Amino acid sequence: MDHTPRQMAAPERPDSVAEWLALKDRALAVAAEGVTIADARLPDRPLIYANEGFERMTGYPVAEVMGRNCRFLQGPDTDASAVAEIRSALADCRACVVEILNYRQDRTTFWNRLSITPVRDGSGEVTHFIGIQSDVTARRLAEDALRVSKETLEQDLRLAARVQQALLPPPEFDAGALRVAHAFHPCDDLAGDAVGVVPLTGDRLAIYVLDVSGHGVGASLLSFTLAHLLSPAAGGVLLTEDASAGPVVVPPARVAERLNRQFPMDRTRQYFTLVYGVIDTLSGRFEYVTAGHPAPVVLPREGAPFPVESAGLPVGMLDDATYAESTLTLEPGDRLYFYTDGAVEALDANEAEFGQERLLEAMASVRDRPLRAGLEAIAADVQAWCGGRLRDDVSLLAVERFR
Predict the structure, then answer these.
(1) pTM to 2 decimals?
(2) Which of 86, 198, 294, 399 to pair with 350, CA 20 to 30 A apart?
(3) Are strands 47-50 and 34-39 parallel, antiparallel or unpaired?
(4) What is the pLDDT of residues 335-385, one digit of tens each?
(5) How far apart are CA 119 and CA 134, in angstroms?
(6) Parallel, antiparallel, or unpaired for β 34-39 and 126-135?
(7) What is the C-alpha to C-alpha distance for residues 89 and 96, in angstroms, rounded to an integer?
(8) Within this chain, do residues 88 and 196 fall inside the same structural domain, yes or no?
(9) Domain that includes residue 34, residue range
(10) What is the pLDDT of residues 162-180, one digit of tens each?
(11) pLDDT, tens only, 106-122
(12) Are 147 and 355 in contact (CB under 8 A)?
């Protein structure tokens, strides 16, 4: 058996210039793109060549376009700036690439990615221009649809953000011996935080601050739902009806337990932290419950601020979670601050947190400022710490007993 390696036969090559030219003609004819050649030496640069791809793309038979300038593809909606760029490139004898709206023979439109390249002779003079046309209509339509969808989504988000802002309590108001204020700074258009102050029976107010896990639309939808539930019209979440006594305030621990049963994490895929309580607007007595939320901070009339008792799992973590109430009383001149973890977890350029210690210092530093102005000053300190790039919502609420 002959084991001598055999050489592969070389592919056949055209034997003459005529065969080479015929091969190139066939290649240009079957190309998917349109190919045209215009004579730069003749007035108005007429076409002297167009391939079958050009005919398929435009609907114009090749024979009908010979001797014409390619501007016949333009129409009433063709962008004037694209036309000006083509004219400038031809006048300067330079290459250019534009996307231009062109018209087929049947006057339907298509987006044409047009590439024009000058061809020079041995002396450097431009003798011809080669044009390559690619139909990019499908891509342009997809981009336009995506742009419209994005604009619609952004408009919807702005509307939702306005609705969310409308659900907030007044920036500052007085009730009995108390002054209440808040500062609300979402990191995106929509927030997963919610703050609320709800009038109850007698001289009592319900106060809450909550923070839904995650960001974006999902977190904001749950915060919307919770803001609705934590209202007098929510059908018994905050108040129940007693046949003899009328509306009765639901204890804070029972409110947290009901929410925990209603929003299990295995169904909502989210959990939330909460501080909720009921305060007497005359005596300053505050009964509250915390559920995985940062502890409220008391700033006494004299002395350093300190966090109060706090315990309890986030709402939704365990089906059978129970919650215990705590009680404190604000004396005249005392303030009580609530905040979400976006305040203490704000990071600077070195990934260092703002932290609770700085937050307590900021609270102490605004002791003599009006309540809401002080909250905005604290929020400004947090934003300055992270260079204005909040990664999480920052919500603050404060209660001051002024008599």
Answers:
(1) 0.71
(2) 294
(3) antiparallel
(4) 999 999 999 999 999 999 999 999 999 999 999 999 999 999 999 999 999
(5) 20
(6) antiparallel
(7) 6
(8) no
(9) 17-135
(10) 888 888 999 999 999 999 9
(11) 999 999 999 999 999 99
(12) no
